[in-house]
Specification:
Subcellular location: Cytoplasm
Number of domains: 4
CATH class of the largest domain: Alpha Beta
Distance between the termini: 56 Å
Structural class: alpha/beta
Shape: elongated
Main location: cytoplasm
InterPro entries: CheY-like_superfamily, Homeodomain-like_sf, HptR, HTH_AraC, HTH_AraC-typ_CS, Sig_transdc_resp-reg_receiver, Tscrpt_reg_AraC-type_HTH
Keywords: Cytoplasm, DNA-binding, Phosphoprotein, Transcription, Transcription regulation, Two-component regulatory system
Radius of gyration: 37 Å
Helix content: 55-70%
Strand order of the largest sheet: 2-1-3-4-5
CATH topology of the largest domain: Alpha-Beta Plaits
Organism: Cohnella lubricantis
Number of helices: 24
Length: 551
């Protein structure tokens, strides 16, 4: 809707214009009047009309003076000039002032409404243009953070090519050779508790709130941009951009900055977090290495000593070769757990898990990275055990902590005791599934051999095992298996191992040596050779293709 102002010293003229104008048709909700130019200016300031009809010859401030003032103070105001004098000076000023039309008195209905419609058409076009401009800006402002996030992720994952993306360098301040960059990560240890108590389960809302808090800690020459890592459920990535200052001061400033961050997250949201800081770099493409060091630094934090939020710098990772200790595997205890569960002694199974946890604590140090690896192996082994006991696949979580949430298990832990409790909860879940869905005895089926291989692919599987178990000849079993499944037993073992290898290689946190051992290969080189023979590329080449989306 529009607002119109009529300025004329003759009241009959103003009344005539009111009567002749099709105000409803043009969408005018209010028609104001003024008897001279000065009064018109006062109303213009107060009421801010969209369109002004002004008479040229008036006492005091006439139309010429009014239009000159409007031209200076309100250059975008639309005007229609009305005059009883066909005077060139008036017409010239009207044109100079951007008048929509110039009407001679006495004004007739047709000319007046034609001029009004012309003016409204200009106003509507302006509003459409302004609306488009605003919408474009809103869209741009909403999409810029996501665009920056995608750029940083591509840099971290190694797929960003400067030559092909020069237009985006300015967006991440990478076009200034004086800027330096660094990555940090924030791992949310009690995320599920905070989600439940404060964010009604809305993870995206929590991550948005945390990112806003982190980005508000900007200092002169020290800015950050943070976002949730889409590949790691609990991780926030923080990109630091440093301008000026001494390079030697950056590590101290980074530690100070992240200490403020973890303290604020605890105070504002109750989040217990572990932050890792990577090295600074002068080239934005080196952020991949900085990020890897940040992840390593956070993963190096000793869970046995963790007692709240903490920050680790990349030196903790730089010396990791001196700190690595022999890791303990749960594999040797799975059969004991199964025997206890199947005999109905869940407390005994729990005792086995707690004894295993004690062996971890006895190592003297147990990092978050060790905890992640142990948890994943525990799930993998128990998945195999439960599947062998007849638990349906839909009841088995993925071999990562995210899968545990899918079956209703909480995975928070902020100290080693809570980690022990997590392992016991995991075991309890599998025990429940096995008790409620134990497989019934059935006659021999060649499928039992396939199922055994599916669950024990990491062991040294020999056909003689099945021949002795089922009192059947080696040749008969091999023939029957190939008829049923189209490949020999040894070939099928190889297929299962290779399929599992691909699944584990998709987790960048796992070393190839660890994967080799989990699959039953004692020699990393032998595993790499077997993988290359099977897929025509090495494990490292496959992992790189998967991480860059070349599937």
């Amino acid at each position: 809707m529009y607002k119109v102002l009529i300025i004329d010293d003759e009241e009959p003229t103003r009344e005539a214009i009111r009567i002749l104008g099709d105000w409803k048709g043009i969408g005018a909700e209010e028609v104001l009047e003024a008897g001279d130019g000065q009064s018109g200016l006062d109303l213009l300031r107060e009421q801010k009309p969209d369109l002004v009809l002004v008479d040229m010859k008036m006492p005091g401030m006439d139309g010429l003076a009014f239009l000159r003032q409007v031209e200076e103070d309100y250059p975008n105001l639309l005007t229609i000039v009305i005059s009883g004098f066909n005077d060139f000076e008036y017409t010239r000023q009207a044109i100079r002032s951007g008048a929509v039309d110039y009407l001679l008195k006495p004004v007739n209905r047709q000319d007046l409404n034609q001029a009004l419609r012309k003016a409204i058409g200009v106003l509507e076009e302006r509003r459409r243009s302004e609306s488009d401009f605003i919408n474009r800006n809103i869209t741009l402002n909403m999409s810029l953070p996501k665009l920056k996030e995608d750029i940083y992720l591509s840099v971290i994952e190694g797929s960003f090519k400067v030559k092909n993306n020069e237009a985006f360098l300015g967006l991440i301040q990478a076009d200034d050779p004086g800027n330096r960059f660094g990555a940090a990560v924030v791992r949310l240890m009690n995320m599920e508790e905070v989600l439940e108590e404060r964010f009604k389960g809305e993870r995206d809302l929590l991550m948005f709130a945390i990112s806003n808090v982190i980005d508000e800690f900007a200092e002169e020459g020290f800015r950050s941009f943070s976002f949730a890592n889409p590949r790691k459920n609990r991780e926030i990535i923080v990109i630091r951009t440093v301008t000026g200052g001494n390079r030697e001061d950056v590590p101290f400033r980074s530690i100070h900055f992240m200490n403020k961050v973890v303290a604020a997250l605890k105070e504002l949201f109750g989040v217990v977090s572990v932050a890792g800081i990577g090295t600074q770099c002068s080239d934005v493409t080196e952020l991949a290495e900085s990020y890897a060091l940040a992840v390593e630094a956070a993963g190096s934090v000793d869970l046995l000593k963790l007692s709240g939020s903490t920050v680790a710098y990349q030196q903790a990772a730089a010396n990791r070769s001196d700190q690595e200790k022999e890791s303990h595997s749960i594999a040797g205890r799975v059969s004991q757990i199964r025997a206890a569960v199947e005999s109905g002694h869940e407390n005994q199974a729990r005792a086995i898990v707690l004894d295993f946890a004690k062996s971890l604590a006895d190592l003297g140090s147990f990092s978050l990275k060790d905890a992640d690896r142990t948890t994943m192996e525990f799930i993998v082994r128990l998945n195999d055990m439960a599947s062998e006991c007849g638990v349906p696949p839909e009841k088995l979580p993925w071999a990562r902590q995210g899968g545990l949430r899918e079956v209703g298990l909480k995975t928070d832990y902020v100290n080693f005791q809570q980690y022990e409790d997590l392992l016991c909860r995991i075991m309890g879940y599998y025990a429940l599934q096995i008790r409620s869905g134990a497989a019934v005895e059935r006659a021999f089926d060649i499928g039992e051999i396939k199922e055994y291989i599916d669950q024990h692919y990491f062991e040294d599987i020999k056909i003689s095992i099945f021949a002795e178990r089922y009192y059947l000849s080696r040749e008969y079993l091999m023939k029957l298996f190939k008829q049923q499944y189209g490949s020999g037993i040894h070939e099928y073992v190889q297929k299962v191992r290779m399929d599992k290898a691909k699944e584990l290689l998709n987790d960048s946190d796992l070393k190839i040596q660890d994967i080799s051992e989990m699959l039953g290969y004692k020699d990393k080189n032998y595993f790499s050779k077997a993988f290359r023979n099977y897929f025509a590329l090495s494990p490292s080449e496959y992992r790189h293709k998967w991480s860059t989306g070349q599937k």
